[in-house]
Amino acid sequence: MRTFGVEEEFLIVDPSNGSPLPLAADLLRLQDPGEPADLSTHPALAVELHQEQLEVITHPHSTLSGLSAEILSGRAYADSLARKVGARIAALATSPLAVTPHSTSNPRYDALLEKFAVVAREQLTCGCHIHVSVDSDEEGVAILDRIRSWLPPLMALSSNSPFWDGADSGYASFRTQAWNRWSSAGPTEIFGSAQAYHQRVADLAATGVVNNPDFDARLSARHPTVEIRVSDVCLDPRDTVLIAALVRGLVETAAREWKSGQAADTVSAIILRQGAWLASRWGIQGELLHPLTHKPESARNVIAALHNHVRDALVEAGDAAYVEESLQRIFADGTGARLQRQAYARHGRLADVVSDAVVVTHQEPAIYEPLTQADLSLLVPNPVV
């Protein structure tokens, strides 16, 4: 069974007015000191480019139930720290209210801000990255080549950023639009081999613009995983679990295709970019590009095709029932983008969109409960970062 882990980025918000607060460094200082990271009874926390956001990183898991439990406890743990300084954690991929972010000062981020200027200064966006284990770089690159067309539906299912700079952007995932301003962001062409992949990364580094490319999906630089990076952070934690299950199913399906000799679809990256734009614009409320034909079809049909594509892998992993139920729920209730817009329609204030988001972010666990020793025995060593 392939292991998988999740990185979720969250906004730190003022519960009284919904404004993002630059408190990430303060929250990290509030963690329990003296506990080795690899023995921690809660997910790891990390700062990001701006102090208004916090990243929560799970351990790798082999079961969906184990991953789900840590996603819930990670949100609750981060929120328990935020509460100590009068803040809350909200799973919003962009801030509904206008904000001027405060950058995190370290050599890496200072260099990014100097080089990318306004793109970096405005990049207060929160994503959800899924890591799935692979046996080798060769297998990993073969998987990257075979999942490219299936990533926009994941973007649509996770869409959770309709507001930008204090107004409705018109997009379901405006985070995607903001993120794609980075020079190496977006879909890639076929690599064909691990050697070609690493050469492409080296060639990009040689330009002097980027060191670690922001591809939609890539090999992790630090772990034996592929990292899928197209999703907004999901408002509802159940949606995060769904995305993780679908990603693991995609990775396993792609690996089997490679091992059986099935060639990768050679559709160009520019066509894939159009599919990503449709997913960003409409989420699951409009048309998406079908991953097999690259022609527009209803989101429901495209998501059904994704579901069918990974069905065997889901069944074998024991994830099929959860995915079936979750997809039905999302098409009935909507993604985070729809829930945010409904909150604004009810209240008429963006501050109340944030307040409602805090409730949904933490709707499952009432209080943080550290993982028990029994829970820890099920974890795979070395947290995904």
Automatic annotation (TrEMBL):
Q: What is its EC number?
A: 6.3.2.2
Q: What class of enzyme is it?
A: ligase
Name the keywords, alphabetized.
ATP-binding, Ligase, Nucleotide-binding
Q: Which InterPro entries match?
A: GCL_type2/YbdK_subfam (IPR050141), GCS2 (IPR006336), Gln_synth/guanido_kin_cat_dom (IPR014746), YbdK (IPR011793)
Catalyzes what?
A: L-cysteine + L-glutamate + ATP = gamma-L-glutamyl-L-cysteine + ADP + phosphate + H(+)
Kindly indicate whether the keyword Chloroplast belongs to this entry.
no
Any single GO molecular-function term of the entry would be: glutamate-cysteine ligase activity
Listed name of the protein: Putative glutamate--cysteine ligase 2
Q: Which organism is it from?
A: Pseudarthrobacter humi
